[in-house]
Amino acid sequence: MQITYDCPKCLQPERSEVTAASQAIMCPDCQWTRPIGEGDLQGELPTRCLACGCQDLWRQKDFSQTLGVAIVALGVVLSTVAMAYMQPELSLGILMVFALADMILFVVMRDCLVCYRCHARFRRIPNLEQVGAFDLEVNERYRQEAIRLKQAEQSVAPR
Ligand SMILES: [Zn+2]
Ligand SMILES: [Zn+2]
Q: 3-9: which pairs have CB atoms within 8 A and are 24 or more residues apart?
């Protein structure tokens, strides 16, 4: 499995390979490390976030929203160009091809897991179906928690 996360110490985006035999994940930039405990993995399926220990993860398509929007935007630009050259059929065709490509990409994309708390992503995991999809209520809980943490940090920070 592959995990992408922001290192809690140096805040750099990192990518690590984790197997059932891995003992820990380590940040290559600052050597921050977090051990992988016995209960953290169920075979290849993480039961909690390996970066922050949070027990709530959601399952979603490993599809970047930005990429999807970029594909559609490119299709619109190209079809506008075709329109400018008085090619309405070509223009429509381009739009349809790009919309279709967007759809196919979404369907073939595999699922990944995302941590509610630190948004680390876990890719290439078998048997993901047992994990639930995004839950707004759970997310709200973590959002509130993050806000409280931030306020607490600010109140102890030296002025
Ligand atoms: Zn680091
Ligand atoms: Zn996490």
A: 3/50, 3/51, 3/120, 3/121, 3/122, 3/123, 4/120, 4/121, 4/123, 5/51, 5/115, 5/118, 5/119, 5/120, 5/121, 6/118, 6/119, 6/120, 7/32, 8/32, 8/51, 8/52, 8/118
